Amino acid sequence: MMPVRARSPLDRVADALTLLAAALLFGVSAMTLSALGVAYDQAGGSFLQKFHPATYMASLALAVRFIARARPLGWLAEQTARFPGATYFVTTWIVMIVFAAVAQKAPISPIIDSFLCSVAFLVLYADADERTRATMRVALHAFMFVNACIGIVEFVTHWRLTPYVAAGKVILHDYRSTALLGHPLVNAAVGAAYLLMLLYGADRAVGWGLRLVLVGVQLASFVTFGGRTAIVLSIALGAPRLARPALEVLAGRRFDMRAALVAALSAPVLLAAIVLLAQRGTFDGLLERFADDKGSADARLLIFQLFDYFSFDELLFGPDQQRLASIQNTLGIEYGIESSWFGFLFGYGAFMTLFFLAAFAALMWEFWRRSRPGAWALFLYILVQLSSAAGISVKSLVFDQFVVLLLAFFCDWPREQRAPAAARRALRLAPERA
Fold first, then answer.
1. Which residue of 108, 147, 402, 429 is 20 to 30 Å from 191, comparing CA positions?
2. 412 contacts 372 by C-beta, under 8 angstroms
3. Residue 431 lies in a domain
4. What DSSP character marks residue 372?
5. DSSP 8-state symbol, 114
6. Digit-coded pLDDT (tens) for 135-154
């Protein structure tokens, strides 16, 4: 256990702000901000509107945690030794922000929003008390369940909670749901990460019965969100986890008869439901996306043609962004470069990209070393997702959301002993002592 340390009122404020930041991160999508008239990822609007509310709230929570310490600068120095990989990442990240603003004359909000919450929550969640952590876990379970249910309702009723907006255009012809997370592919990506965490043993306090319900609802929501990469990765990475217990039972391992009875009774019902839904055309939209990807694969191949338009120096230090946008339009790459790594290459140049990828690897190691066995599937999942979509090379909260789920459900944290009553009473009357 961690040593006893009485928590100050400011610590409790920071914990509350951490919970609020998580609620904003998951519950307020770019489409929600657009519906509210905030020019978050659209042209126009003030500079302050270009940052997500969760970014502001996480920054405020960190600031409160900082001033809550008796020796703030000493506490800050401790974090560099506590999180060396994150420290290296933040250093490189700041350099890249300056490079984007000064050299590339590019907006800095995408690179800030894509990573700030993931770094902030590493510190905030690690320093949170057990009550805050438990509250966040329950809230995230509830959110993912409700979000999937909303997606299913939207799919069945053809009604949307918020308008589906992409690249500033309202999309009316797409069947996919947007729910609370906004873009269908964001819903699918985050839902698949959550599904894999459940399969690999996330949150040990959740029993197998509730876990099956949560997994089932996420699986059903995949039909409504239509993320092909998320679906394929869920099957490919989830299958080894499901196959192992089956093989152990066949080898003679004892099993819970209640689970066997539930499986025997539910399997025919589930199969009949799938057949009935297939006959009613429920899966037609999803199957059509696998048969016709609307040019998504072609857009990924067109990325390689971009190399023909730039010199070696431009590729090394980053091409002019207006010219890059013009060439993308000419080639028909309408919605951006669908690969985070190529997006960084053409956005910031090979020189900065190599440094940043090394820093990103250090940040991923910071999460990896705290993760439970089975985390290989989760890290492989997010790396493939980022490789096949714009992800972190554009303004997106997907990585931040993945990190928060990982910290809450799949990382082990030392428990902090409760401070004695006398210490708690003294704390109310005097400032915290180092």
1. 108
2. yes
3. no
4. P
5. T
6. 999 999 999 999 999 999 98
